[in-house]
Amino acid sequence: MAAEDDFRHESVQDRRSIVKYLHAITAGIEQGQIELGTADHMLALEPGGMIELEVQAKRKAGRVKFSIKLHWREDEEEPSTEVLEIKAGPRS
Amino acid sequence: MTTRSEANATAGLRENFKFLALEVTKLIEDTQRMLASPREEVMTKIVARDDYVDNLKSMIENKCFRLLTNEDLNEGTIDLIRAINVATNNLERIADFGVNIVGQLGYLDDLDTLHRFEAEPFFESILSTLGVVEPALFRRDMSLALAICRSELEIDELYSAVFRRIMDDLRSGDSPEDLVTTLFIYRYLERAGDALLNIGEAAIFASVGEKLKVSEFQALEETLASASPDLDLDLDLADVDYQGIWETRSGSRIGMVHSRESGKRSVVFKEGRTKKVFEEKLALERWEQLEPGLPPKVFAYQENGDKASLLLEYLQGDTFQRIMLDSDGRACTNAYMMVVETIGRVWDRTLEPTHCKPNFMRQVASRLPDVFKVHPEFRGAPARIGELDIPSFDALLTEARSLDAELVAPFRVLIHGDLNTDNVIVNLPQRKVHMIDLHRSRLFDYLQDVSVFIVSNFRLKIFEPGPRRRLDQVTREFYAFAREFALAHDDAGFDARLALGLARSLLTSTRFEMDPTFSRTMMLRARYLIERLLSHRAAHGQNSWADFRLDEATIVP
């Protein structure tokens, strides 16, 4: 993913309407693909492999923050030229 | 600025040092005379000598620091100058002890109390040792350096005999004041021995460039001497070039010993606890029988109480780890093929159809205190998110202990026991593979080796895409290779057992990983693998391990 592959969305919701967002996200995770972005710039994320999950809650002076973060790695697009050249299984 | 030759740079120092050693020797001889019969004129001489020693010390110190800061010198010369400085300080201390000793004489009521004990052997040892300090240092004579170190042992033994007798006499209640003064005098002689040891160690440092314990050098000397003569080893301490001796994680010491004459064999010297070193020797012999030339040859084995040492062949080639990181794709592929062919061959040839329980969780339990000592943050408390209960790490590991009884290998093979990729040496030009560090080798579940191999790639903190991709690819290929072996030998629980083996290796490796982020990654991966196994069992029952699939994404970082 290039550096300009960046998306941010902010809104105000209530408890009921927020669930719609969370459903959309969990459905995307289940399918292994989440599409998101704006009309002129869409991103397709493919969560897979090992995904780090960080759930954080914070309460300070009457303000509450609850965050869920996912991290994962995806393969670089250009494979390096110096990879192994193993074609068949090692033991024939 | 060109590098100045050592003889040239240190000529003045050497001259001063000779005088210093000589003056300290004379001062100690005067001290000996004073103990026999105190005389005013000898006392005056001692005071004058002590002043001269102090002056020489400052002069040498200044020269050392000037040389170290202003001159472009090679490393060996720098080591020599550091050693000269250490030796100078300790010679000055020996002179001070002499002055302290004669100072104590004033407190003695009756010289007879002092003369009940023999001081001559102490002085003999100190004086003869002082005589070889200068050549040991400047000629970098290892046997003289060792002789200096040994004098401390000798003086210690003399002191402990005198100490016991003084204690006995004190108990009998006779002239306690004079006995205490006598004890102080002998104590100064004993401390002179400690100063000599420092000088001996500095002389070793000057020849070797690294700080070493004397006992290790003695072991090396003895082991070299005991090497079988028909091996044409012909190395002895005097013409050996030491290339780094370092401490391993297991507490043993390893060093390369290269002969200065080209064309002569190089050897590896290992010293450690007898049990460990002896086990390694047995394993080496076993592997040698199985595949001659695979392990390093054993040139000598020497036991000395709880310590033992081995002299091993220095194998030509690179570690497989180096090859993965530094070589081109073709070389790496060749090396990989040679490595798996070798491992596969050993497995085939040693396979015994005896069930084997690797007890990976029990292995974790034995290392866990060390892991928590380094990473107390891993303990954690149980947590809850909504309806989801998340057990503490401890609780999860306790629950996972029952997995040991269920995950059994249907056969066992001769394993390496610590199959890190840097314990595999590949000699590409000669197309040879060698294994080193075989002291944990035994008949066991091959997945112990497979998991250690995979985790040794995982835990390398290399994240640049090129090399990382190479490591990950080797890991995947190795997994496929092991899986094929499992299929060929009806090892249905392969994936499940490997998952637990990986968890074990990841977790126990965290005790060597200080980086909080990376150690956490390893711990979380181990935790994930264990959770997967437990949830599989909860969903499918105890006899369902053949259905467990390891996601290949879990075996790479």
TrEMBL record, chain A:
Domain Amphi-Trp positions: 1-86
Query: What is this protein's name?
Result: Amphi-Trp domain-containing protein
Mind giving the lineage of the organism this protein is from?
Answer: Bacteria, Pseudomonadati, Myxococcota, Polyangia, Nannocystales
Q: Which InterPro entries match?
A: Amphi-Trp_dom
The organism of origin for this protein: Enhygromyxa salina
UniProtKB/TrEMBL annotation, chain B:
Top-rank taxon, per record? Bacteria
Q: Domain PhoU, which positions? A: 23-102, 136-202
Instruction: Indicate what this protein is called per its UniProt record.
Output: Phosphate uptake regulator PhoU
Quote the Gene3D superfamilies the UniProt record gives: 3.90.1200.10, Phosphate transport system protein phou homolog 2, domain 2 (1.20.58.220)
UniProt organism field: Enhygromyxa salina
Give GO BP annotations, semicolon-separated. Answer: intracellular phosphate ion homeostasis; negative regulation of phosphate metabolic process
Family affiliation: Belongs to the PhoU family.
Q: What is the lineage of its organism?
A: Bacteria, Pseudomonadati, Myxococcota, Polyangia, Nannocystales
Aminoglycoside phosphotransferase domain sequence ranges: 296-459
